[in-house]
C-alpha cells in the first residue's frame, strides 16, 4: 500500500542544463522536500513520469528540447497535468510571460536567482498543489467505505497500464465480489449490509500492502485491487490471500451455505501491449470472477487457467 499522498515528503524536480543553477536551486529548497534533477528536457520528462513530482522548476534555455516545449509535453501527459511548473529564466517582458503561460507554466523565477524569491514561490505553489491534492483525494474516495472509488480506480489503472508498457513486468488485477450479498442485506438489513461493506473494504485495503497496490470499491458489493509488477501466479496467490483474510473475519451469514461472509475473486495479469489494455485486463479479471462464482464461490480463479 502506498503512503498517503498528503502525508509523504514533497518531491521537487529541477530541469536545467546548468550544474551551477541546479546546485544553487537545490540548496535554496533543500528543506522543502526531496530534490531531483535532470539536465535535458527529454530526460526530465521521462524522470517526471516515473517520479510524479509535486513541482517542477524548469529552465527556459536548454539544448535539444527547450523549456517551452518541455512544459507543453509535461502538460499533455495525463499523470503530470496537475503538477505546477515554474520557469527559471533571464528573459523578461510580456511576450516571454505569455509564451510561458501558454505552455502551461504557473509562475516565473527571474535570474539572477534570489533565495527569498525562490523559496517564497516554491512554497506558495507547493501549498497550492497540496490543497488541490486534498480536494482531488476527497473526490476519489468512496463515501461509504472510505477507500478509493471507481473514478480513482479507472484513472490509476490507465496510468499503470501506460507505465507497464514502458517498463518490464506484468500488471495484475483482482476483482472481488462479496458472495450472496443481496440475501445478506435482505436478512440482516441495510445498516448491517453497510457495516459489512466497510469491514470487507478495510480488509481488502489492508491486504494491499506492497508499493503501488491500490484497493477501490468497484461498484455495489464489488472491489478491485491493482497489482503493479505482478506475475500471474503471484496475482493468484494474492487472490487466495484475500479469500482467506475475509474468511478470517468470521462475519456471520446465515443465508450462505458457508455460514459466514465470503468472497469470490477473479485475477488477471499480463504485460500491457496496446492502448485499451485497461479494458482488456478488467474484462479478463471479470470473466475469471464469473467462473469463480459459477464454480461454487468462496474461491479465486486466474484468468486463462483451466477449462
UniProtKB/TrEMBL annotation:
Residues 169-305 form the GGDEF domain. The keyword Phosphoprotein applies. InterPro entries: CheY-like_superfamily (IPR011006), Diguanylate_Cyclase (IPR050469), GGDEF_dom (IPR000160), Nucleotide_cyclase (IPR029787), Rev_trsase/Diguanyl_cyclase (IPR043128), Sig_transdc_resp-reg_receiver (IPR001789). Its EC number is 2.7.7.65. The lineage of its organism: Bacteria, Pseudomonadati, Pseudomonadota, Betaproteobacteria, Rhodocyclales. The keyword Phosphoprotein applies. It is an enzyme of class 2 (transferase). This is diguanylate cyclase. Keywords: Phosphoprotein. SUPFAM superfamilies: CheY-like, Nucleotide cyclase. CDD domains: GGDEF. It catalyses: 2 GTP = 3',3'-c-di-GMP + 2 diphosphate. The modification 4-aspartylphosphate is found at residue 59. Residues 11-126 form the Response regulatory domain.
Amino acid at each position: 500500500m502506498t503512503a498517503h499522498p498528503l502525508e509523504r515528503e514533497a518531491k521537487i524536480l529541477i530541469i536545467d542544463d546548468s550544474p551551477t543553477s541546479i546546485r544553487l536551486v537545490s540548496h535554496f529548497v533543500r528543506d522543502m522536500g526531496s530534490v531531483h534533477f535532470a539536465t535535458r528536457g527529454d530526460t526530465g520528462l521521462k524522470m517526471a513520469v516515473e517520479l510524479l513530482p509535486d513541482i517542477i522548476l524548469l529552465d527556459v534555455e536548454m539544448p535539444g528540447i527547450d523549456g517551452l516545449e518541455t512544459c507543453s509535453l509535461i502538460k499533455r501527459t495525463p499523470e503530470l497535468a496537475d503538477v505546477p511548473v515554474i520557469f527559471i529564466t533571464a528573459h523578461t517582458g510580456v511576450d516571454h510571460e505569455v509564451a510561458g503561460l501558454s505552455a502551461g507554466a504557473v509562475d516565473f523565477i527571474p535570474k539572477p536567482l534570489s533565495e527569498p524569491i525562490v523559496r517564497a514561490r516554491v512554497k506558495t505553489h507547493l501549498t497550492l498543489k497540496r490543497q488541490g491534492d486534498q480536494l482531488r483525494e476527497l473526490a476519489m474516495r468512496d463515501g461509504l467505505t472510505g477507500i478509493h472509488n471507481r473514478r480513482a480506480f479507472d484513472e490509476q489503472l490507465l496510468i499503470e497500464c501506460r507505465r507497464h508498457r514502458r517498463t518490464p513486468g506484468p500488471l495484475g488485477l483482482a476483482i472481488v465480489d462479496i458472495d450472496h450479498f443481496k440475501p445478506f442485506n435482505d436478512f440482516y438489513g441495510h445498516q448491517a449490509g453497510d457495516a459489512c461493506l466497510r469491514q470487507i473494504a478495510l480488509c481488502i485495503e489492508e491486504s494491499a500492502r506492497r508499493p503501488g497496490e491500490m484497493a477501490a470499491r468497484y461498484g455495489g458489493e464489488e472491489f478491485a485491487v491493482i497489482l503493479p509488477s505482478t506475475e500471474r501466479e503471484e496475482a493468484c496467490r494474492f487472490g487466495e490471500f484475500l479469500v482467506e483474510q475475509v474468511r478470517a473475519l468470521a462475519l456471520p451469514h446465515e443465508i450462505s451455505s458457508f455460514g459466514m461472509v465470503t468472497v469470490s475473486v477473479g485475477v488477471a495479469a499480463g504485460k500491457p501491449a496496446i492502448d485499451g489494455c485497461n479494458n482488456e485486463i478488467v474484462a479478463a479479471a471479470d470473466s475469471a470472477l464469473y467462473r469463480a462464482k459459477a464454480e461454487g464461490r468462496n474461491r479465486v480463479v486466474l484468468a486463462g487457467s483451466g477449462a
